[in-house]
């Protein structure tokens, strides 16, 4: 079986979960004998030994690609400041569609598989040329990125067009699947939820600096993710304030970067807890694993999270997890603590409980590790294959 | 030997715990009422009792009273937990009255257990004995009966418990008729616990074992459409009983009373089944019903059953793992039981009562993570969002309790008692 996979980014040149998820899925599919032509918009010079990476525009390289997570308000800001042209946001996406034509004419495939709205115009273009079944993978919708606030009408239109055109849609969680039905008017019969998988950590090792803190009896509460509206960093700060009132020996580590970082620092300063915060910036690989391992509890207070792979990464690193009920991962991770993202008191209550009652993290750790044994890309690939087979 | 048809021995467990409300760390030191949830959730004890009374207890009582009137040879037994009776007195006197009416017929035996529906036998013998005394006193006060047969919380049983009950003069004790303790033997006979020879001239306590296959056909499988015997009729059930003819003398059907109307619904025909059962059973003139103490009078002991380890009526393991299987459960149990001496030294009634209410086995059952992700019977019975939520509220409450204890200990013993935080 041959799949024409239309992507936007791949690690190590990724800005978040989209690239990681595409990579994990493609790798597992190729292990099952699927031949994958993975298309990227520009020449990013990425090597792979299990799939053919192709560039819709071979000649252009190093061009700054917009991250897949820009919200409408961020986009407006960027346009106003002049760093991005008015049409850049959409134009890169449309350019991709224009450029993919030639590749699609040359290549053969049984399935066209696209990932999120950035690739939808290109995927639809490929279908025009190749006349093969079209699969849309939905890692996030405009509703998730904007946290239910300002929607970008153009993005919404592109999403809706792509979804309507697709023969099958694969959302990464039940919640986002429901959004597709209720907000985009998609027929639920076209939808197959496939949860993401997670890789084992590379090495178990702990960052020495944090180890020193831990030796002094401090407990580490971790926020890891893009510091953007969608991830609920402001709720994390509010909960941190309450926690430190009741549990003075708690330290709050923030790993990641994003447009709300300044706001987060200001908020922590206003609440008088900024001295309890450590900002590490964006981490990947072993460094990321070591911060998970240093943490006594990982908190994911996302406002709207189609899946939330970081929660599973935390479990893989044997860290107890608190997730918002507004996340896809809360559907598959029963052995976690769950809170509504807005209920900062309950979030604090649960953080304190994990720090205070030693048997609680012990059982959370043991049971959650056991629970996610089957959440692998291998299993996700099996389910995606099932969808493919129904189409050809 | 002449074989007769078996006797049916019915025992219904009637219990509702005092569930702990959602109690946050911020409530510690401020709110000392742990059991007064007033939300619309399943933690609202008053609401739950009202709901179950309407769906199960009241219609079942009415039906049983009719059956007692109609069939002179029909009888059965109840075991009430003290915390259940306490809630009846407070929230639903009408229901208490209806239970009293049943007992007044003289054909409903009442069994003995711990007032607080606790597993205290395995943690503190003096505490356990106090709770049994409290229970039997409450039964006497409300029903004017003195229980002669003992059943422990969750039917948790071993040789030691049988030895204790024997010494206390109980005539019989109940346990699960689990295969591993019986081996090739059948639960349909009267047995004797393995606790050595009786003193001269004294009768030894007897052991009644639950026929879990037939009991669970009613309690668990009745509404299960995938079960090959569905739908279960009184006729079919009676034919299974009659088949025992010659292979047993007594069939012990032990189950939660909530089976009738709460676990199995009226809409699925559970009341029709119960209504028809005595008549069908008694159609055969050799068949009869006995209460536990009648059973041990009527039939001889056939063998000795040795139970050196704890056997309960829960889950496929039939052990205590549903209450003590994980770290959060064990730490909660340890934390509550280690307060015993300090609580008792205060001589404070309210503290003692709260502490005992925190021992009710259901609190620990709600913390069970066994099979949690598969979502089975544990989830069905859990009023909390997760076992971890149950644990968090419990530990926060216990910390508030410790503060109160510290306060009271200061007054009584001039600060000599140090409370472990």
UniProtKB/TrEMBL annotation, chain B:
<dbReference type="InterPro" id="IPR004300">
    <property type="entry name" value="Glyco_hydro_57_N"/>
</dbReference>
<dbReference type="GO" id="GO:0005975">
    <property type="term" value="P:carbohydrate metabolic process"/>
</dbReference>
<feature type="domain" description="Glycoside hydrolase family 57 N-terminal">
    <location>
        <begin position="10"/>
        <end position="308"/>
    </location>
</feature>
<keyword id="KW-0119">Carbohydrate metabolism</keyword>
<dbReference type="InterPro" id="IPR052046">
    <property type="entry name" value="GH57_Enzymes"/>
</dbReference>
<dbReference type="Pfam" id="PF03065">
    <property type="entry name" value="Glyco_hydro_57"/>
</dbReference>
<comment type="similarity">
    <text>Belongs to the glycosyl hydrolase 57 family.</text>
</comment>
<protein>
    <submittedName>
        <fullName>Glycosyl hydrolase, family 57</fullName>
    </submittedName>
</protein>
<dbReference type="GO" id="GO:0016787">
    <property type="term" value="F:hydrolase activity"/>
</dbReference>
<keyword id="KW-0378">Hydrolase</keyword>
<dbReference type="InterPro" id="IPR011330">
    <property type="entry name" value="Glyco_hydro/deAcase_b/a-brl"/>
</dbReference>
